Amino acid sequence: MHITQLNRECLLHLFSFLDKNSRKNLAKTCHKLLEVFQDPLLWSLLNFHSPVELKKDNFLLGPALKYLSICWYSERVKVCNIEDWMKNSFQKDFCNRHENTVNDFLLDVCNRCPNLLSLTLSGCGHVTDDCILQVLKNCPNLKSLKLENCVRITDQTLEAVTLHGGSLRTLHVDFCRNVTQAGLERVKQKCPSVMLRAERSANMIPDSKPEKKLMLEKASRKLVQL
């Protein structure tokens, strides 16, 4: 029995076990499998691990998407996760090329994926408060928002949660060094049903205070001299 003789439900089930690239390669073999690849039901969950993946044509965005994860873990991408004052010229060039990649992608999600339930961002150093605000406005069913090491996220995102996160049940802002304790307390007060986690956030030295960075640099030089 040839694979194309299976009904659509069986083919969708088989495709669900494949990663994005394998699905795309299989879809190239015949028109029927291409139609299965293009079925929105196949794309309820998406995971990305590099900026290049967001620009490929091996996935679909649509109303069926409910779970989205964008996590930069590779050694090459880690250069986007540290403060500008520590970057060398190579790191700055690399970051500039990808500065708007995640933001642009998330705005596309806002327009195409109104039923999103869960969004996880880790190491996305260029994601802005305005972008998260648009996600909260355009994805009213969002129940879980997990942000880790997103250095541009501030109390503006926390305020957006209190205003537009009516369905939110889980909020993580771990290692988001530019949120404050006051912002976290406001979320606790306004959204008592939200499970809030902010490991190593409000107590970290924020990027917005260069004088403290200068103090760190001086301390580092003293240690080297010793």
UniProtKB/TrEMBL annotation:
Gene Ontology, cellular component aspect: cytoplasm
Tagged with keyword DNA repair: no
Keywords for the protein's UniProt record, in alphabetical order: Ubl conjugation pathway
Span of domain F-box: 9-46
Record's keyword annotation contains Glycosyltransferase: no
InterPro entries: F-box-like_dom_sf (IPR036047), F-box_dom (IPR001810), F-box_LRR-repeat (IPR050648), Leu-rich_rpt_Cys-con_subtyp (IPR006553), LRR_dom_sf (IPR032675)
Xref: Pfam families: F-box-like
SMART domains in UniProt: LRR_CC
Protein name in UniProt: FXL22 protein
Gene that encodes it: Fbxl22
